[in-house]
Write a structure and sequence with these properties.
Blueprint lengths: L5 E2 L2 H9 L4 E3 L6 E5 L3 H11 L8 E3 L14 H10 L4 E6 L6 H4 L4 E5 L4 H9 L4 E2 L14 H8 L5 E3 L11 E5 L4 E5 L5 H7 L4 E2 L20 E5 L2 H13 L4 E4 L4 H17 L4 E5 L7 H12 L6
Parallel strand pairs: 1-8, 2-8, 4-6, 5-9, 10-11, 12-14, 13-14
Antiparallel strand pairs: 2-3, 3-7, 4-7, 5-6, 9-10
Helix pairs in contact: 1-5
The chain binds threonylcarbamoyladenylate and magnesium ion.
Threonylcarbamoyladenylate binds next to strand 5 and strand 6.
Length: 309
């Protein structure tokens, strides 16, 4: 696999997209594989490059200056959340408008919208007269990329260009909140927690039951080649890793005391384990609060038995 061109020039990325190309872009959460929303051929190529089923709809990424109500029906709750958290790691799932093509939503009547805060991608979006779809820039079912070289490694020249914006600061995918006439609910936990969301809304949140309604959030996702074991305590994880090494296996503990750092480094560490051929990662589960909930969610998926083709 040949390496793709890599640039830090957002205008060059905009030109490639305007010519019908697909470009890996940095966001504050993870790198995305972008194409213009109304460029059907580019969007179809993104599904193919990722080996992603067409039934898994894509997030539409908007410029900070765009009007989200062109794309989706933004009710009072959604508007408040957008005002509080955009640009930032929040995706709003709302009823779509006719501007959103079927090839983005898989024919669903909803659309996922997000305004990313990464400055290079904001500049890129400002150069375009369309929004961008951008699923995480990894092969389907694998660990999301948090650095440009992760994308180069995974996708090579199947992408036309990589816009290098440095390491992602959040490190795990955006929080997805569904807002419709009935209620709001968190479908995918992230750096913006359900407490943050509840604080902004006057109406209460519906329970987290995302697995049933957002496709692409199957039990096993975000999985490295290494086996991931989970431990509730640091001491327990160290003991397990020690026992495994004594039994002749290669095993390491994965843990950061600071949950923000844990999230930022999680995928990089799982990828690094694979690069070194490590057999087993023993990950310590952080407290189930704040961003810790999202880390636990991704670790559970990384440790689940694989259920993709
Ligand atoms: O942080 C992020 O959100 C990253 C960066 C690149 O923005 N993107 C990302 O995209 O994580 P992706 O495609 O890997 O995950 C998007 C999730 C999928 O589970 C997808 O099924 C769900 O959002 N989704 C998108 N549109 C939807 C819709 N209309 N209805 C239900 N689920 C939807
Ligand atoms: Mg993904």
């Amino acid at each position: 696999m040949t390496s793709p061109p890599v640039t830090t020039d957002a205008r060059r990325a905009a030109e490639t997209l305007s010519r019908g190309g697909i470009v890996a872009i940095p966001t504050e959460t993870v790198y995305g594989l972008a194409g213009r929303v109304h460029d059907e051929a580019a969007v179809r190529r993104i599904f193919a490059v990722k080996a992603r089923p067409l039934s898994h709809p894509l997030i539409v990424h908007l410029a900070a200056g765009d009007d989200p109500s062109r794309w989706g029906h933004i009710n009072d709750s959604a508007r408040r959340l957008a005002e509080a958290f955009w640009p930032g790691p929040l995706t709003l799932l709302v009823p779509r408008t006719p501007l959103v093509p079927d090839w983005v939503t898989g024919g669903r009547d909803s659309v996922a919208l997000r305004v990313p805060s990464h400055p290079a991608t904001q500049e890129l979006l400002d150069c375009l007269d369309d929004a961008l779809v951008a699923p995480s820039a990894n092969r389907f079912g694998h660990v999301s990329p948090t650095r440009a070289d992760h994308v180069v490694h995974d996708l090579g020249d199947r992408v036309d260009l990589v816009l290098d914006g440095g390491p992602c600061t959040v490190g795990i995918e955006s929080t997805i909140v569904e807002c419709n006439d009935r209620a709001c609910s968190v479908l995918r936990p992230g750096a913006i927690t359900s407490d943050h969301v509840a604080q902004v809304l006057s109406s209460p949140l519906r329970g987290d039951d995302g697995d049933s309604r957002a496709p692409g959030m199957m039990k096993s996702h975000y999985a490295p080649n290494a086996v991931v074991l989970l431990s509730d305590t640091v001491a327990g994880a160290r003991r397990t890793a020690e026992e495994l090494r004594n039994a002749g296996r290669s095993a390491e503990v994965l843990w950061y005391q600071d949950p923000g750092e844990y999230a930022a480094r999680l995928y990089e560490r799982l990828r690094d384990a694979d690069a070194r051929g490590l057999e087993i990662v023993v990950a310590v589960l952080p407290e189930d609060e704040g961003i810790g909930r999202a880390i636990r969610d991704r670790l559970a998926k990384a440790s689940a038995e694989r259920d993709w083709p």
